[in-house]
Specification:
With 242 residues, the chain is of the alpha/beta class. Helices cover 43% and strands 14% of the residues. The protein has helices spanning 8-14, 37-43, 60-70, 75-88, 104-116, 134-149, 161-167, 185-190, 204-211, 221-235; strands at 2-4, 26-27, 30-31, 44-47, 122-126, 153-157, 170-175, 178-184. It starts with a strand and ends in a 7-residue tail after the last helix.
Length: 242
């Protein structure tokens, strides 16, 4: 699931902040603010938009291993999990370095790694692609896909519509504290004309398929090519296409 526009305060409430103005938050039937830290991090993992809000340890290794140590996992298991996730985010060479000596993008990768390594039931990622190049983004999304296949719920808070269109099946659009759309991502992009109101940039391939008035929006370049090829075959020649 992805949430776009005006969402950080909502995500903190979903995570573990106690700064709500009213009401109660329940996770698996338990009231959030009556749960201990271990129960919370085992149920909900939250990655802040700024990595500096959550990094507390003196080495990258200790930062990633912190939650695993709280769960009292065997040291061999902790070491394997830390190195596995560090390899995914290309931070293996930094494991013995102080996180605050790294660049912001590198610190962001450390923060994401330290949350995902816990494999909580729900993961909330606030603008996780900030500071990541395309290769790191794809590796991260592939890792997240594996978490989803294990039954982990991933809430992805972002303005990166390229990531949303390619990887996220369900979308919520929030503006001024109100839900403006909730449903299948493809259907959201078919209403792309409304996105300008929310200052959301529609990926060019989706904008093109919408302008061509196709039955449904192509969510990736590969999908656009497949649809175009199918239409060419039906039409019989390029002049009758689209």
């Amino acid at each position: 699931m992805s949430i776009t526009c005006g969402f950080s305060s909502h995500s903190v409430t979903l995570g573990f902040s106690n700064n709500t103005e009213g009401g109660k938050v329940f996770i698996n039937g338990k009231e959030l603010f009556k749960m201990n830290v271990i129960d919370i991090v085992s149920n909900v993992g939250y990655v802040f938009q700024s990595p500096d809000y959550q990094i507390t340890q003196k080495t990258v290794y200790d930062e990633i291993a912190f939650g695993l140590k709280l769960k009292k996992l065997p040291s061999t298991t902790i070491e394997k999990k830390v190195h596995d996730v560090a390899q995914i985010f290309n931070i293996t060479d930094y494991l013995q370095r102080h996180p605050h000596f790294l660049s912001r993008g590198e610190r962001k990768r450390v923060a994401i790694a330290s949350t995902l390594v816990m494999e909580p039931e729900v993961v909330i990622l606030d603008e996780p692609t900030t500071g990541l190049d395309s290769i790191r983004c794809r590796k991260m999304m592939d890792y997240i896909q594996k978490l989803r296949e294990k039954g982990i719920t991933v809430i992805f808070l972002t303005h990166d519509m390229g990531i949303v269109s390619e990887y996220i099946p369900d979308t919520i659009i929030v503006s001024q504290g109100e839900i403006k759309f909730h449903g299948e991502t493809r259907r959201a992009f078919q209403c792309a004309a409304d996105f300008h109101e929310f200052q959301i940039d529609v990926p060019p391939v989706i904008d093109l398929s919408n302008r061509l008035k196709w039955d449904y929006a192509a969510l990736s370049t590969e999908e656009f090519i497949r649809q175009a090829d199918a239409r060419l075959r039906v039409a019989g020649n390029a002049s009758d296409t689209i």
